[in-house]
Amino acid sequence: MLKRDWYTLTLSKVMKNKSLSYLLCLSPLLVLIILLAYNVAVFGDESLSGSNQLALLISATIAAIIGIIQKTTTFQKILSGVSSSVSSTTPAIIILLLIGALTGTWLISGIVPAMIYYGLQILNPKIFFFATAVISAIVSVATGSSWSTIATIGIALLGIGTALGLPTGLTAGAIISGAYFGDKMSPLSDTTNLAPIVSGTDLFTHIRYMLYTTIPSFLITLIVFLIIGINIKETTIENTNEILNTISNTFNISGWLFIIPIIIVLLIIKRTPAIAVLIIGVLLAGISTIFFQPDIIKIIAKSNHIDFYSCYFSIVSSITGEISINTVSEIKSVKSMMDSLLYSGGMAGMMNTIWLIICAMIFGGVMESTGILKRIAEPILKYAKNTGNLIATTAGTCVFFNLTASDQYLSIVVSGRMFADSYKKNKLAPENLSRTIEDSGTVTSVLIPWNTCGATQSAILGISTLSYLPFCFFNLISPIMSIIFGYFNIKIRKLSK
Question: How many domains does the chain have?
Answer without folding.
Answer: 1
